[in-house]
Amino acid sequence: MLLVEALLLKALAIPLLARIAWFDFTTQKIANRDVLLLLCLGGGSLLLLWLQSGSWWDMGLSAVAGLLLFVALFPFWTLRKIGAGDVKMMTVVPLLIGGNALILFSVLLMVFAIVTAVVVKIPFMLPQGAFRLYVQYLDRKGVVPFGVPISLATVCTIAFEIYKTVMIATSSGILNQLN
Q1: How many CA atoms within 13 Å lie on the side-chain side of 99?
Q2: Which of 68, 105, 128, 166 has its CA 20 to 30 A from that of 94?
Q3: 79-108 burial by CB neighbour count: b if 16+ within 10 A, else e?
Q4: Phi then psi for 10, rounded to 5 degrees?
Q5: Please, what's the b/e burial string for 7-31 (b: 16 or more CB within 10 A of its CB; e: otherwise)?
Q6: Do 137 and 73 meet the contact criterion of CB atoms below 8 Å apart?
Q7: DSSP helix/strand/coil, 56
Q8: CB 150 within 8 A of CB 109
C-alpha cells in the first residue's frame, strides 16, 4: 500500500511539472515555491518507499545524485550559462524520480534538451505564428528555457515508473490477491 501512495505523490508532481515548464517557457523563471513543492513530493515519496523496503539505498542514491548535480551545475550558474532555477530544479529531480530511474531520466533529458536547443536555434522548422515569433525572440535574447526539457524528462520518467509498477502488479497477481 505504501508503494501506491508513493506513486500517487509522484503523480501529483506531474501537473506541477507542467506548470513549471509553461512558466519557464513564458518567463524564463522557475519559482522557488515550485521547487520546494517538488522537494516535498519527492522526499515524501522516497520516505514511503524506504518504509516499504527498509533500505536507504534509493534515498541515498537520490541524495548523492542531487548533490553531484548541484556541484556540477553551480559553476555554470556563476558563469551565467544556466539559470539558478534550473540548477535548483535539477538538484531536486533525483529525489522526485528516485535513484533507480536516474539513467532513464538522463537519456530522456538529453533527448529533450537537444530538441529544445534545435527548436530555439532553428525556429524556421516551426509552423508560422506566434509560437515561432516567440522562439525567434528567445534565440535573439540568447536564452533556452531549460526547465521545459527537465520537466518533460521528469514527467516521462514518472509515467514510465507508474506504468512499470502497474504492469508488475497485474502480472504477478497482486491485484487479484487484494480483491
Answers
A1: 18
A2: 166
A3: eeebbebbbbbbbbbbbbbbbebbebbeeb
A4: -65, -40
A5: bebbeebeebbeebbebbbeebebe
A6: no
A7: coil
A8: yes
Burial category of 61 from C-beta neighbours within 10 Å (exposed 0-12, middle 13-18, buried 19 and up): middle
What type of residue sits at position 59? M
**Strand (E) or helix (H) holding 35:** helix 32-53
- H or E element at residue 30: none
Q: In a 3-state reduction of DSSP, which class is residue 129?
A: coil
The C-alpha cell of 60 is what?
A: 541515498
Cα–Cα dist 133/122, whole Å: 12
The secondary structure of residue 172, as a DSSP letter, is T
Q: What is the pLDDT along the chain (179 residues), one digit of tens a residue?
A: 778 888 899 999 999 999 999 998 888 899 999 999 999 999 999 999 888 888 888 889 999 999 999 999 999 999 988 889 999 999 999 999 988 899 999 999 999 999 887 777 776 666 666 566 666 676 667 677 889 999 999 999 999 999 988 888 777 665 566 65
Q: Which residue has the cell 556563476?
A: 78
Question: Per the structure block, which three cell numbers stand in for 69?
Answer: 548535480
pTM: 0.86
